[in-house]
Amino acid sequence: MAIPAADQDRSLEFYVETLGFEKRADETFADGQMRWIEVTPRGAATAIAITPPMEVGPTSGGSGIIISTDDIEADHAALKDAGVDVDPEIARWGPPVPPMFRLPDPNGKALSIVEPLPA
């Protein structure tokens, strides 16, 4: 998954400092004209690329990224206390939909935080 970011440094800071992700890569290429950054939730195998803005493709709305948590209450409260613009309440529609809330990244891309239902 790639998220285009007009300000890659600001996005990197948000994902690492605010959400607690790990920086996996931060490389320049094309003679220093382009930058590729990858971040990942701690211990996760799948990374999110923070790329320069694309000339073609989606530029607004949701990111399609869903981040799982074991404690949605604590994460919602911690992000809210940190000043992140999270949904005011955790959405609870009941099974089969897990509890969730959303928040925007610095580029306005919506991320969903979800606590999976027990199997």
Please give a handful of descriptors for the protein shown.
four-stranded mixed beta sheet, 119 residues, three-stranded mixed beta sheet, 2,3-Dihydroxybiphenyl 1,2-Dioxygenase, domain 1, alpha/beta
Topology:
Blueprint: E1 2-4, H1 8-18, E2 22-29, E3 34-40, E4 48-51, E5 62-68, H2 72-81, E6 100-104, E7 110-114
Parallel strand pairs: 1-4, 5-7
Antiparallel strand pairs: 2-3, 3-4, 6-7
What does this structure look like?
The strands form two sheets. The chain has a four-stranded mixed β-sheet, covered by helices on one side. Strands 5-7-6 form a three-stranded mixed β-sheet, with no helix packed on it. With 119 residues, the protein is an alpha/beta fold. It starts with a strand and ends in a 5-residue tail after the last strand. The chain is elongated. The chain has two helices and seven strands; from the N terminus they run βαββββαββ. 18% of the residues lie in helices and 33% in strands.
Count the DSSP helices.
2
- The CATH architecture can be named as Roll
Main pleated-sheet profile = 4 strands, mixed
CA distance, first residue to last residue: 26 Å
The class by helix and strand makeup works out as: alpha/beta
Query: How many domains make up the coordinates?
Result: 1
Mean pLDDT: 84
- Tell me the CATH topology: 2,3-Dihydroxybiphenyl 1,2-Dioxygenase, domain 1
User: Quaternary state, please?
Assistant: single chain
Question: CATH superfamily assignment?
Answer: 2,3-Dihydroxybiphenyl 1,2-Dioxygenase, domain 1
| Relative strand content | 25-35%
**Helix fraction bin:** 10-25%
Main-sheet strand order equals: 1-4-3-2
Overall spatial form? elongated
- Alpha-carbon Rg, integer: 15 Å
Order of helix and strand elements from N to C terminus: EHEEEEHEE
Number of strands: 7
CATH class: Alpha Beta
Parts with pLDDT < 50 across at least 5 consecutive residues: 56-60
